Amino acid sequence: MGDIGIGIFAGEVPASLNDGGAGSADNEWSPRVAFVTGIARGQGRSHAREFARLGADIGGLDLCSPIASVPYDLATPSDLEQTRQEIEALGRRAVLSVADVRDQEGVRAAVAKVLQEFGRIDVVVTNAGVFSVGDPLSLSPQTWQDVLDVNLTGVWNTVQACLPAMIEGGAAEASS
Questions:
Q1: For helices 104-118 and 154-168, angle between their N-to-C axes, nearest 10 degrees
Q2: Number of other CB atoms surrounding residue 143 within 10 Å
Q3: Phi and psi dihedrals of 42, rounded to 5?
């Protein structure tokens, strides 16, 4: 068992994730479960597909709607559905939710659905994140708060929701 780290893998990382997938065996992660935030597209979708390719079932969440202070398009419900289809095309199951990492209860509900379906979470990838661009002297307090809430509080909310099941299942240890 590995040490707990916020925003990094808890538990043993499969060798194939460290070597870019070279020489990895399919189903090396079956019957494990990976939980990914920001899963609907980009890096989140890529992480989910790789874990699925390795044999893991996938749980995850994405906001799938805009944040007013974020100056670019965020994922959509159709992006989330595309991710589900890609995971299932790899022969794995997916429990994906529309939820906001800034909302602790929403994250807990998404994690509860994953635990109800799969009974475990072995790894958490806190991938959800946003950024803003512009002159720091004119950056609004709301923009700053939104970035902190997604990028920092969202990690905390996700780890808080996933960690008890990971400890119970032996995928992580609590230490002080």
A1: 30
A2: 20
A3: 60, -140
Query: Is residue 97 within 8 Å of residue 61, measured between CB atoms?
Result: yes
Rounded to two decimals, what is the model's pTM?
A: 0.86
Predicted confidence (pLDDT) per residue in 142-167, tens digit? 999 999 999 999 999 999 999 999 99
Closest CA to 81 of 42, 40, 50: 40
Q: 82-117: string of b/e by CB count within 10 Å (b at 16+)? A: ebbebbeebebebbbbbbbbbbbebbbebbebbbee
Sequence-distant contacts of 101-106: CB under 8 A, at least 24 apart? 101/37, 101/38, 101/61, 101/63, 101/126, 101/128, 101/150, 101/153, 101/154, 101/155, 101/157, 101/158, 102/149, 102/150, 102/153, 102/154, 102/157, 103/157, 104/157, 104/160, 104/161, 106/61
Which residue matches tokens 């890096």?
43
Residue 138: both structure tokens together: 């004119």
In this structure, are residues 29 and 9 in contact, taking their beta carbons and an 8 Å threshold? no
pLDDT digits (tens, 9 = 90+) for 1-45: 344 333 334 444 455 555 554 445 577 888 899 999 999 999 999
Q: SS3 string of 66-103?
A: CCCCCCCCCCCHHHHHHHHHHHHHCCCCEEEEECCCCC
